[in-house]
Amino acid sequence: MKFEEFDITPEIKKSLEELGFKKPTDIQFKSIPAILKGEDVLAIAQTGTGKTAAFAIPIIHIVHEQKGRTHDGIKAVVMVPTHELAIQITEVFNSIGQYTGVKTFSLFGGVDQAPQIKQFEEGVDILVTTPGRMFDLMSQGHIKLDRVEVLVLDEADHMMDLGFIKDIQDVIKRLPKNRQTLFFSATINDKIKKVAYSLVRNAIRIQISPKDPVSKNIHHSVAFVEMDDKRFFLERVINENADKKILVFVRTKVRAERVMLALERMGIKSITIHSDKEQEDRLEVMKLFRSGEVKILIATDISARGIDIANVDYVVNYDLPDVSENYVHRVGRTGRGVQKGQAISFCSEEEKDMLHEIESFLDQPIKVLEIHKGDYSQTIDLTNEKHTDWKTLMKEIQKHDEEPKKKKKKR
Ligand code: ADP
Ligand code: MG
Hints:
Blueprint: H1 10-19, H2 26-36, E1 41-44, H3 51-66, E2 76-79, H4 83-96, E3 104-107, H5 114-122, E4 126-129, H6 131-139, E5 150-154, H7 156-159, H8 162-173, E6 180-185, H9 190-198, E7 205-206, E8 218-224, H10 230-240, E9 245-249, H11 253-265, E10 271-273, H12 279-291, E11 296-299, E12 312-317, H13 325-331, E13 341-347, H14 352-362, E14 367-368, H15 373-379, H16 390-401
Parallel strand pairs: 1-6, 1-7, 2-4, 2-5, 3-4, 5-6, 8-13, 8-14, 9-11, 9-12, 10-11, 12-13
Helix pairs in contact: 2-3, 3-4, 6-8, 11-16
Magnesium ion binds next to helix 3.
């Protein structure tokens, strides 16, 4: 099967060819015809399998076909959890739709809303947005939704979970009843599935439900490392993978900054991203990491969802995630498309319960990376010449590390 064979406009086929997309991935093969037919879709497919284009291609086609024939107004709304994801998905729409004249625009909070409002006056066909800012502008009367035909919830399980559901329900109330609703995610659970069913008109089609939620392109394992020793093992991973792009996930924003400082003292340059950073800084950080100017990014779970950065070779779970499905999303930042990736999780004694929770979510054990005793002590060896300053460093960081533990979210 080639994209050629789909019933989509030649303008889209041309850009797909330029993007180097030769044939559709499985999820694209199954979703595109269903969406073109007007069906509601719940699509569950592993990370990095091209879900964005799976909804972008048919939506751009539908909007393009109607252009000039119907009244103006927003035709499709794509809801996403973060600013970064809104920008990334808008870029995908703009590159696939570059020859169509379909206008896609992204909307997110944390920045001045005046330029965003101005954009609406110029005409927007497709809106990619975080729910909060969308709700604000809608309440102020700047966004009209009476022409919306398609609603997409990307990272659907996360979007329908507690933090977002209220805003989303309020937005949905203002959408035409006779619309198409599409859900895309790599993970879903029964509770969220029920919420999804309550938001659609027709029976929804489940596209692909992978047995193993972790993509086969990702080689992932766990190493038993005590809390205080983690930084030495991180240094080791970094040194053994010089020149590679490494994404390090930590439990809290405070820890993100501390790990960055610890690395700095070891002479390793890294950057951080978390919700305490200004929007502009977050965008700058993403640019530096995307371009490879800085090769190590330390992130909290805000960056676990949907972010597509080429050549992230390694994901390190410096801390295990608090929520088991985030394991799948974190490790899924590597091994995207046809690329291969590696992930390692550092699990301390106190995180073992969480590890079991994750394994039961995955429905299988995670491979253990055995570290021999000698090897372990060598990694944390403080007498090693280049580590002479670490004793002070460790003491300092231990002091910081005594922050209260966040309560685990039960699912
Ligand atoms: P997902 O949302 O499933 O995690 P993305 O939509 O972010 O995945 O796509 C992952 C990567 O795969 C992107 O870099 C994208 O450009 C690439 N990709 C998507 N579809 C195709 C295709 N048909 N052929 C080649 N590469 C593709
Ligand atoms: Mg995605």
